[in-house]
Amino acid sequence: MQKVIAIDGPSGSGKSTMAKNLAKELNILYIDTGAMYRALAYFASLKDIPFQEGESLTRYLNDLTIEYGNEDALIRLDGEDLSQKIREHQVSALASQFSQLPSVRKFLIGFQRDLGQKTICVMEGRDISTVVFPEAFCKIFVTASAEVRAKRRLSQLVETGKDEGISFEQVLKDVEERDRLDIEREVSPLKVAEDAVVVDTSDLSPADVLKRLIEISQEKAKGHNLSL
Ligand code: DC
Predict the structure, then answer these.
(1) Domain count across the chain
(2) Is 0.85 surpassed by the pTM of this model?
């Protein structure tokens, strides 16, 4: 059994905010693995590393120093804080492509396992309950319809001034395309673990989702004699 609350789900399902709130509520570490894929992809694009397997990619990964910290400086690569930059819209597409590469996944899965083994935590991503921590004591799959997710994503972009005039139709298309890539990729595709609890957030308020996640986590912890 691994002392990890593994939360997976498609982009825009609300899982990041919810996972962060859950960790805060339980006073345990929050680990956002999507931020890692985003940072690696963005940094690789800055350095003109081709998005394909090969010598350049291997060298890039071998030479990279990655640090995961608190909320203010979530992710640093080679000492550079990329926490803000990785939230820009175009980085989503880069991360989606970069995360298809087996050596990138191998690199980050190793990093995530090291990080998650140190202390009880909430770890959130696409393959946490299926690949990274398949023995996690608590597995939750957070989802919502594509339309609801696109609407949320657009509001988020507008609120942060990062929408660049993008239309709802375009955001929906991007959401569907990212779903397709996440589900169809050969390595670590997005899927519901057999023993995961599914939470559909389409018609739930953020407060209700959080309440549900706390209930599930505490129930699972009890079943494993863990105190949360
Ligand atoms: O959750 P997010 O949107 O920040 O994730 C960014 C990208 O990284 C997304 O395309 C899916 C990918 N990802 C992944 O493949 N595996 C993870 N564990 C987390 C994210």
Answers:
(1) 1
(2) yes
